[in-house]
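<instruction>
Derive structure tokens from the sequence
<data>
Labelled lines for chain and fold
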Amino acid sequence: MLEEAVNKGLTESVQTKVNALFKIQSKQSKLVVCTCSILGGIAENILLDNGKHVIRIDRARADLAVKSARKILVLAALESTLTPTKALMLSSQQRQNKKNSNITIVSY
């Protein structure tokens, strides 16, 4: 799924596969956590059969960064995560109504 998402984007096919995978996993667990920046945007919007949402681990980090500082530098290990990381940071700004943060995202 990740390879497909990187090569083709977050297509309907990728979304369907991610949704199915997390729903299957939620039958065996009380909590499902997604650690993938690329798939995280899809994952955190999935309502599981147990009535809970998938937790996106990088959401908490982004929210804390936006809350704590006006100037933020994000170092990404993979270039393919730059776009979803930027979307996550902008989403955190919107959720906190903090549009005055200066966010720089680079891969190393």
Notes: Residues 61 and 89 are 9 Å apart (CA to CA). The chain has one domain: 2-107.
